[in-house]
Structure formats: structure tokens, C-alpha cells
Amino acid sequence: MHTHHPADSHHHRPQRVTNSLLVALILTLAFAFAEALAGWWSGSLALLGDAGHMVSDATSLGLAAFAAWVAKRPPSSRHSYGLGRAEVLAAVANALLMFLVVAGIVMAAIARLSTAPTPVAGGMVMAVAALGLIVNLIVAWMLRHGEQTLNTRAALLHVMGDLLGSVAALVAGAVIYFTGWMPIDPILSLLICALILFSSFHLLREALHVLMEGVPAGMDMPEVGRAMAGVSGVASIHDLHIWTLSSGRIALSAHVAMRDMQHWQATLAALQALLHDRYGIEHATLQPEQMITTHVVNLSKIRVK
């Protein structure tokens, strides 16, 4: 007998998540075009790199918005859990896209450092970088205060990388404007790339952990099993599995050895309440089993006549 918890409130995601991603996409794409023109005119690698990064941000935001829309589709006969993992796949794609962007910026920065310094218009760089910083702060605020999923966190990672890129471009422009030291431009680009790579690896590892159906981060499976076994009427718990369906949706399956099968319905309700209230698990498949007891006969007490 398999029993599923009827509640599944995470399946219907609010429309404002998709709307926030779309607004962020429009702002990012518009400024990326303006920054690319300014970077080309001023000769700043930091601005051009940041513009390229913002184009990748726009791509990631578009992918995130599409994945959020797909994830809202209800379960079907072909996808019984729904399409919530579309957001996890989008997070993986966005992390891989970040690696490509970083590789391009690193190659350009190394080439710039190995050749004669290229003149850069420091004043223009500062002005555009400051405007870019404002745009990125607005977009980051929108994503940070929305629903937190792997998908939106991946999009936010791109935006935070862009925000750091704007700060780097602003600092580079100031150093060039006041000191004329040109190498600061590619050096800061390399520093930002290192920070972005660290965050991208962390996000990619977390997304792959979900796809490999690992136990959710921060959840102790043995502790969950002990808590379930402590419910009245339960003899033991075995074949316990816990995994993430999609961001915010955790599933569990287990075999429950019962002392008395007549009390199963009451025990089932208690187990579901425990899993929901203490661990946030709303989808549980629990298989009841009658506990088997064996009687040991002491042969030494039997007299053979």
C-alpha cells in the first residue's frame, strides 16, 4: 500500500517570479547594448567584458524565465512529478555558460597583459560602470527578494558577477583616470573571474546533487529515520530514501514496520505531520508492513521420554 501526502503547495509557483525574471531580462539586455558601445569607444576591456557578461546574463535570465514557466505545468501521464526539474536543468546550463564567459574574459585579459598597454578612456569607463552598477543593483534586488530556487539563484549568480564586474570597471576607470596605470583593467577582470568561478562551481555541484537524487543539503537522513521510528505504533523504518524533486520540493519513501496494522491510519497521519512540520517534506510514499515476531524454543527445557 502506497500513500502520498495530498499537499503539494510548491507546484503552483507565483506568476510574479516569471514577471521579475522578464523585467530583469529587459533591463539587462538594454544596458548590455549601451555598455558594449561605450566599451568599444573607450577601449576598455573591463567594459567590453562586462557587456559580454551582461549578454550572458540576459541569456541566463531568459532561460530562467522559460524554465520557471515550464515548471508551472501540472503533472501528466508522461511526467508524473511535473516538470519542476526544468529549473534545475536551467541552473546547470547557466553555470556552464558562466564558465564559457569567464574563459573568454580570461583569454582577453591575458592577451592584454602580454602586449603593450592599450589606451583606455578612464572617465567614460567610470561613468558607464557607475550606471551599470545601479542597473545591476536593481536587478539583483528584484531576484533576491523573489522566490529562491536553484533557477533564480543561478540567474542571481550571473547578475552578482555582473555587479562585481561593474565595480571592477569603476575601480579600473578611476585608477586609469587618476594614475594612467593601464594594467589595472585586465588585472581586475581576472580577479572578478576567479570570484565568479568559485560561485559557479558551488552552484553546479548543488544542481548536479539534485539531479543525482542526493539527500537534500542540511538534512540528516539517519536522524529523519530515527524520528519516524519514534512515532507511536512504528516498530522500525527501513528502505528510507530522501531526495529533491525540484527546488523547495522534497520527496521521501520508506517501508514502515508496524506493531499492529489496525493502527496504520492513525500512524500514517502522525508520520505525515512529523515529516511536514519538522522537515518540510510534503510528498511521502510510505509502505506499511506487519512486524514479524519469532518465538524461540528453549530445547534444554524439553524432556524426551
Question: What do you see in this structure?
Answer:
The protein has 305 residues and is mainly alpha-helical. The chain has 2 domains: 15-211, Cation efflux protein transmembrane domain (Alpha-lytic protease prodomain-like); 221-290, Cation efflux protein, cytoplasmic domain (Alpha-Beta Plaits, 2-Layer Sandwich), CATH 3.30.70. It has helices at 15-42, 45-71, 86-114, 122-144, 150-179, 184-211, 221-229, 264-279, and strands spanning 234-246, 249-258, 283-290. The protein has a 3-stranded mixed beta sheet. Helix 8 (264-279) links the parallel strand 2 and strand 3 (283-290). Helix 3 (86-114) runs parallel beside helix 5 (150-179) and helix 3 packs antiparallel against helix 6 (184-211). The chain is elongated. The chain starts with 14 loop residues before the first helix and ends in a 15-residue tail after the last strand. The relative contact order is 0.13. Residues 1-14 and 299-305 have low confidence and may be disordered.
List keywords for this structure.
single chain; 305 residues; mainly alpha; Alpha-Beta Plaits; three-stranded mixed sheet; 8 helices; 3 strands; disordered N terminus
